[in-house]
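Q: Joint fold for the lines below.
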Amino acid sequence: MKKVRIGIAGYGNLGRGVELAIKQNDDMELVGVFTRRAPETVKLMTEGVTVYNIDSAKDMQDKIDIMIICGGSATDLPKQTPELAEYFNVIDSFDTHAKIPEHFQNVDKVCKENNHIALISAGWDPGMFSLNRLYAESILSNGKTYTFWGKGVSQGHSDAIRRVDGVKKGIQYTCPVEAAMDAVRSGSQPELTTREKHKRVCYVVAEEGADKEKITDTIKNMKNYFDEYDTTVNFISEEGFDAEHNKMPHGGFVMRSGKTGDGENTHQMIEYSLKLESNPEFTASVLIAYARALSRMRSEGSIGCKTVFDIAPAYLSKLSGEELRATML
Amino acid sequence: MKKVRIGIAGYGNLGRGVELAIKQNDDMELVGVFTRRAPETVKLMTEGVTVYNIDSAKDMQDKIDIMIICGGSATDLPKQTPELAEYFNVIDSFDTHAKIPEHFQNVDKVCKENNHIALISAGWDPGMFSLNRLYAESILSNGKTYTFWGKGVSQGHSDAIRRVDGVKKGIQYTCPVEAAMDAVRSGSQPELTTREKHKRVCYVVAEEGADKEKITDTIKNMKNYFDEYDTTVNFISEEGFDAEHNKMPHGGFVMRSGKTGDGENTHQMIEYSLKLESNPEFTASVLIAYARALSRMRSEGSIGCKTVFDIAPAYLSKLSGEELRATML
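A: Joint structure:
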């Protein structure tokens, strides 16, 4: 068996997750990690793999089948993915939904000029949640789709809390409102406001002597982040914070409530959910499965930019078509 | 927009479901229904569509893009699908899991000889449940997959009840055991016996003067059907039966509990569930979405037998790639 040779560009939480996911898949091999930091300051978890400066990546073209780009969506990926697509088949987890069409075009152009294949916006949302929206809406054409997120840590909202005066440490959990999910499951197809779908729960360690009432007030009224939600602010000790809030759980629900039959009165409910103890490790596992798919599709001659919508599910599995039909269908 | 011209072979519950699903999709058109019964005895729900004898189907080759075959898996489909694949692109919902490889080969051969495309074993299990097993196992390579069915009517078990002496009417619901599902969700990856996963709940209308204790005993000890399960038999009035048990609900759950990360200690849970008021209407909706996919793939030159594993999700949707990326990713 020829292994898929993987490069990792960017070694934060997601990059480390990809490194760990490669260890779980014996048809994958980590060839190198590429970073903007000084390579000697980066310590990997895999024996015998070298850390390189990102600028030297292009010298490794012949040694890497798929480069998995683990930068951030705000500024890294819009630049890195098209740049690296000149030299490699690439995968990213670009998650700025509104800018996906533009990102797709940029990457597609470079891929086609250089005979490479790319997958953008893989992960769980965009990614597995998108797939479930697509399948459910294609099957139940008369219906309504709902996406709920959580319980999970929002980095953006946690960062916003930490910028408030008097906050030493802070974390924010987005939580779906159970009553709203139950209303959807009932088949009533409710119209739900932002406030009705999710609530925000914050845990804060205050600086000594800080005005807790003022902190609470500032957080709850923060425009674009908290003002449209029911927000709870809990003050806890630093020990408690460090012990209980050091993980990155996330997850959520995609639901479609549809009607079929004579008079369209028959209720049909599709629900997909994820409960993840580690958001980056799960995203990394999705990226690795799609690296397998992309490597096969490229070997069949496919080029250009793809999304999860364009990839036949069988490509994700190590099993052959025969094995899949015999064991999983 | 050129509509996809659909033929329906077999007009039972599933065939009627397909007819109703076509009405919900304006890119689909019902061209004819083909039956083994005397055509004049079959009344459709769609104006202006003709019922034909199944033997005359082959004369309609040029008028039908996809023939959806709605026969039973035991004896109809193993014969009908390869036969009709000589003349048409075909879809079926063949659900005898153990015989799928053989059925696939038979259909694939005929398709390739006649330049047709086929999809076998579409629906929800096999079908959407299979897809979810495949995606989940490809992503979480270290884990355990569980499928639970119900609450739903099992036709085979209901038929078995009705063959018991003294039973006037009977229906059987397969129900997942909540405690078992919760154990799976906890991440403990339990080994579950048949009895621990599902229970069987029967509703029976007894003939006048029948020995109810004997009926209960006979049902509970029926080999292959009930003896390995905890079974409850409820006797109810005929009025109650006719009012409450005249639907064909079904559904179930596909769960994968996986571990990722350093030391593989991070629990990741994927869950997909269906709650269907009508099993045949939902299956029909899946078939229609895949009819759209198949028609596109055939127009791109694809031939041979496929399963849901081989079909890129984008083919199922009426939306273009651009529209999907802008709205659903």
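Q: Anything notable?
A: The first strand of chain B starts at residue 4 and ends at 9. Residues 34 and 56 of chain B are 8 Å apart (CA to CA).
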